[in-house]
Amino acid sequence: MDWSSQQPGSAGNVVYSRLKHQILTLELPPGTVLSEKEMSMVFQMSRTPVRESFVRLAQEGLVLVLPQRGTKVSLIDSELVEEGRFMREQLERAVIRLACEHFPEEMLIALDTNLAMQQESMEKRDDQRMFDLDEAFHRTLFEGCRKLGTWAVIQQMNSHLNRSRMLWLSTDQHWNPLYEQHKEMVEAIRRRDPNHAERVMKMHLNLSISNMEVLKEKYPNYIK
Amino acid sequence: MDWSSQQPGSAGNVVYSRLKHQILTLELPPGTVLSEKEMSMVFQMSRTPVRESFVRLAQEGLVLVLPQRGTKVSLIDSELVEEGRFMREQLERAVIRLACEHFPEEMLIALDTNLAMQQESMEKRDDQRMFDLDEAFHRTLFEGCRKLGTWAVIQQMNSHLNRSRMLWLSTDQHWNPLYEQHKEMVEAIRRRDPNHAERVMKMHLNLSISNMEVLKEKYPNYIK
DNA sequence: GCTACCACACTTGTATGGTAGCATTGAACT
DNA sequence: AGTTCAATGCTACCATACAAGTGTGGTAGC
């Protein structure tokens, strides 16, 4: 939820968003210890804004603050991954049904251009960009249904799910079927076929499930 | 999401939870200006932990901090109310279907005792307690399906919805049909009848919709 | 060699003073 | 009378100092 306002350039905000990004991209792997002092030196500022960002990250479950002992990037919690998947499935299925009833034209166009960029990125084998485009695609669905707040909440709950997907991405990823399903969903919205759209969405989300068992075996230190 | 850890008795936490409670119960009405200094005097502590709690409340959208001007309790945002309702409906419908497939016995018993207390509170006309019991009832549904994280996220998104319900409560409230529906849902879970359970849940949530138009007329200063 | 203990180097939590920016007021000016 | 603008008092923001808890390594005593 990003209505945290405050001036975007404030010291506290830059370290917050920077750290958040690094955590979500696994640049800061789960379990990394952080320390307010160390970060204050890295970012060339006092402890206060750093601490502030730690508090916000803790609020979102991205870091774990242990009083008087230290702060570390939270491990990926399998339960939360499953819950995130569950929640996302319910909401996305509902939203795409909404989209079939009413969806603004300009948003449909946005989806088209997004699809084009997906194809391009796929050929370039640019996984990170593909990941971002995938996210933007779904986000646009919510935006078109005026449900951006819902999307924000999903994002928050899915910090754990997304990190596991990020791990999964490095092991193996076939974008093609996902892309095809994206196209199929847009067509279904144009045809105003909620049942078909919902069915594709359900399959789509099941495809991007990462197998936690395998991940836990491969990256035991990252997963709780 | 309350895995913000930190020692529960820390100064920052007490002011955070106290303020949060006061905001959600409208003890601090929307639009109230807060000021770090003032609160630090009220709670007999320095500005630092107060400021920290402000940051956390802002993260949840409960207060709005305007950089060099002040901090005030956020107005009830009609869009967020609608989104909260939407999100809650989707997730509760899905969860009660899950509950019909599998629900631990002790949780069913918890629902029974909750129902008994609801009846008692209804006779006593204790609206606030009824409100809390209602919340506990739904929370138990999520708990039984191991979806407490989802419930936490709903609660967060619903801070605006709940405040509007709190307003609505003071104008007019008929608990009886809600109570009957609660009973009916428990029965449906026992019978393992997902379709009926979901239908009742849908009606149930529609009942507790507060009419934003009316509210906006009655409390124009509270609503955006 | 083993254990108990203590000093020290960390950590986060809290207090406080100073800074920059916004808003209001009121006086000077047109 | 209406307008401009500077003084003033407010705010959140940040830096710094101190307090208090935790873990660790070294050392004295056995």
Assembly of the depicted chains? homodimer
Structural class of chain A: mainly alpha
Put simply, the count of helices of chain A is 11
> Biggest chain pair contact, residues each?
A-B, 36 and 36 residues
Rg of chain A, Cα atoms, Å: 19 Å
The top-level CATH class of the largest domain in chain A is Mainly Alpha
CATH H-level superfamily of the largest domain in chain A? GntR ligand-binding domain-like
Strands of the widest sheet of chain A, in order across it, are 1-2
Shape descriptor of chain A: globular
Unreliably modeled segments of chain A: none
Distance between the termini of chain A: 25 Å
What is the name of the CATH topology of the largest domain in chain A? Four Helix Bundle (Hemerythrin (Met), subunit A)
Helix fraction of chain A?
55-70%
CATH architecture designation of the largest domain in chain A: Up-down Bundle
- If you average the pLDDT of chain A, what whole number results? 90
Largest sheet of chain A: 2 strands, antiparallel
Would you report the number of β strands of chain A? 2
Q: In the residues of chain A, how many domains can be counted? A: 2
Q: How much β-strand is present in the residues of chain A?
A: under 5%
